[in-house]
Amino acid sequence: MSEYVECDTEIQKEEDAIEGLKLLGNSEVEIHDTAQELIGYDGSVRRDAGGNVIKANIIVRRKYVGTASNDLGLRRESNGRYTLLESQYDRNHLRDKHGFQFRNGLKQGVALSAAQREAKRQGFKINMPKKVKLGGKMKLQLTRWR
User: Fold this and answer.
1) Which domain holds residue 107?
2) Which end of the chain has fewer CB atoms < 10 Å from its terminal CB, N or C?
3) Contact in structure between 24 and 111 (CB atoms under 8 Å)
4) Starting from the edge strand earliest in sequence, which strands make up the sheet with 72-76, in order?
């Protein structure tokens, strides 16, 4: 059974986290005020090395990650930021699937979501392709009609 890895993120807004996950192709995202248990590939509740149940507030269930995968989660911390919880297996599986580290794609998706929200607030529109390819450089074009 692969261990879960905790990755600190700069994510502070729930909607950015959700949009970032969706941009990576995770359309089925659960949101919980109270953190819920993450489930492993074998259907068991995942525990850390100390025996504590691993929980997250934003979850992509394993059936949407991959056939032999574990749940993927983001846990809201007391400082308002989210910690990415991914298993060692899925870290490698998702890198192979996307061609880049999942956490880097999530970071880029979150940044894009924040940029879209801020652009809209300032009266701009971001012209984006229908399918966003994360993992490389991204150039945004903003327009505003006066």
Assistant:
1) 4-143
2) C
3) no
4) 4-8, 82-87, 72-76, 55-60, 30-37
